[in-house]
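Entry 12.
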Amino acid sequence: MPDGTLFPVPVSQCDSWVIREALHNCIAHQDYRMGGKINVVEHPDRVVFANLGIFIPSSVHWMFEHQSPPEHYRNQWLIGGMIRLRMIDQQGSGIRRMFETQRERFFPLPDCLIDADSSAKPRVEVAVHGRILDVKYTQLLMKRRDLNLSQVVLLDQVQKRQKSTPAASKLLKTQKLIEGRAPNYYISAKAAEWTGQKARYICNRGLDDDYYRRLITEYLQKICESQPQRNG
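Predicted 3D structure (tokens):
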């Protein structure tokens, strides 16, 4: 429901472009030498795509930090044909656009699992979420234009209670976006004001005496104001 309105705006559970892009990425980057297959599994709240092969480049964060596409692809001839058919983006920015689209729709960002274990066949799994985790949190978080996409990804991990690296947690704490101790981080007081989750923040940090004193004072003031005034 947009701010300032009483009427919700219906949106599709999954964006059609994001679904196509995830599937086309599986086709383009599958390592066909492994003799595997591409899997697409639909759950009530998400769609999961998986393909075999090492992820190129080394991480999703590399795509956020670099404006240029990867220097090489696994299936160059296949990708060239898909570009000519306009199935995939020629600039190599499809993954970044998937995250931006989910951000603009106020949905959780895609989850990318890169399994490069040498003892098994390497695979890449992408989950596209079709359910909002917290309406107020998601809407206001995604409207924070002062945050870059890398920061939004880190905050999205906190929202999902996913484990983050010490460096990422330190960055968010330095920016006063999260509080708590590892691994139980939560949205800070400042971020709670942005997201309307003050009640959740209070439950996390506990209540102090000043808070109770203020509640009692405000309650007594309301009682006095509601009582009819007596003459002389």
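Annotation: The first strand starts at residue 39 and ends at 42. The chain has ten helices and six strands.
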